[in-house]
Amino acid sequence: MTERALPAQLAEGSETPTDASPCSTNGHVEQDPRVELGQLRRAMRTRPVIDMARGVLMASFGLSADDAWDVLVSVSQNTNTKLHLVAAELVDAATGGEIPKPFRRQLAATVARLQEPPTAPLTDEG
Description:
By secondary structure, the protein is mainly alpha-helical. Helix content is 62%, strand content 3%.
């Protein structure tokens, strides 16, 4: 196979031994640049709404940026919803929309857990 034939085959969706699995050099896994480009574009589109939702959580509940991120991740994972969609619902709610019930329950539980005072370690006094 020549180098010219390779791009045509990739465009047709056929797998070759060289693209069937990621290459590894020095422990770094290389990714198909087209896949990486698509992921970066999606991240650039979804990041603003995620950042706004973090701000809403920080302002509403007095959370740190890291805790606000943890809330978004928890709600996303426990409702099986993409994180950017959870973020969009929260931003919408900040402007008068309503948070869906499953999100509301998970949000309340996660925020409550984060706002609980830390428990003192048990000591052996005996």
